Amino acid sequence: MRAFEVLRPGALTTVQDGGRPGYAHLGVPRSGALDSAAHTLANRLLGNPPRAAVLETTLDGVGLRALAGPLLVAVTGAPCAVRVCGRAAPWGAPVLLRAGAELSVGRAESGVRSYVAVRGGFAVDPVLGSRSTDLLSGLGPPVLAAGALLPVGPPGPDPVAGVDALAVPGPPQELVLPLRLGPRADWFDARSLTDGLLRAPYRVSPASNRIGLRTEAGPPLLRARSGELPSEGMVLGAVQVPPDGYPVVFLADHPVTGGYPVVGVVPPGRALDAAAQAGPGLAVRFVRS
C-alpha cells in the first residue's frame, strides 16, 4: 500500500489541494492551500496535477514514515530543514524515500507554512470534489494526528520537473497588501482611510489563522456611520473591519457571509500567498490598488 504513517503531526498540519470554490451558496468556504504558489510548485516538482493534495504544515513541520516505496516527495513554502532517516535532504527539490524511510520536515526558518507533496498526491477521500481540510466548516479530512495513515495515489504520466524553487519569492520581510477600496469604504471616516489605513503600518496579530489574517498595533479605522449591516456575501481577500477598528483579511477558510463592513478587497495572487507566510509581529501595510 502506497501510504504514509504520521509520526509527528506538528502544531497544525492539514491536507490541502486547490480547494472547493463554487459552494458559497451552500454555506461552504473555498478552503485549499493558503500559499497557492508554494502548493503549485511542490506539485510541479513531482509531475503532479497543479491541484493535487499536499500537506500544509504550520510553524514546526511534520514527521512521516513511508509504508511502501519508492515514494518521491518535495517540500516547498517556508524554508525548513528536511531530513530522511536523520540525514539532511534538499528543500525545494525531489527526494526519494525507500519503504520504511522516515521523513522529517523541521521548524520554519522564516515564514509560517511549508508544503509537503508526494508524487501521486495524498489520496484521502474527497468531499464536494476536494480533499482539503476546512477548519471553519469541518469538511474534509481531520487535522493530522499521530498514527494516522495517509494513502498516496498512483503517479501520473508527467515527468518530474527541473524547477528552481529558489526563484520563487520567499516569505516577506514586510507584508504589503494592495487594496481595492469598496464596497463599504463609505462606512469609514475619510481621514481614517487616507491617513490611517493607507499610510500607517499595522502588525500581524497572533490570533491570525487560516480563516483570516488579523491586524493590530496600527490606527483603528473610525466609523462614519452607526449601526450594522445585514449579513452579506464575503469573498477571498475581503478586508472586514470589526468594531475594534482593526482590519481582518479573509483567507481560504473564511466565512461565506458576514455583517461587519468590508472596506476593500485584496486581489488573489502573490499578495495573499505572502499573507499565508506572514508570522505574528510582521509589519503590514495596505496600499491602494
What would you note in describing this structure?
There is one protein chain. By secondary structure, this protein is mostly beta strands. The protein has three helices and 20 strands. It has helices spanning about 35-45, 190-195, 270-275, and strands spanning about 5-10, 15, 55, 60-65, 70-75, 80-85, 85-90, 95, 100-110, 115-120, 150, 175-180, 200-205, 210-215, 230-235, 240, 250, 255-260, 260-265, 285-289. Strands 12-19-16-17-14-13-20 form a seven-stranded mixed beta barrel. A six-stranded antiparallel beta sheet has the order 7-6-9-4-1-11, with no helix packed on it. A five-stranded antiparallel beta sheet has the order 2-3-10-5-8, covered by helices on one side. The longest helix has 11 residues, at about 35-45. About 45% of the residues are buried. The model has no long low-confidence stretch (mean pLDDT about 95).
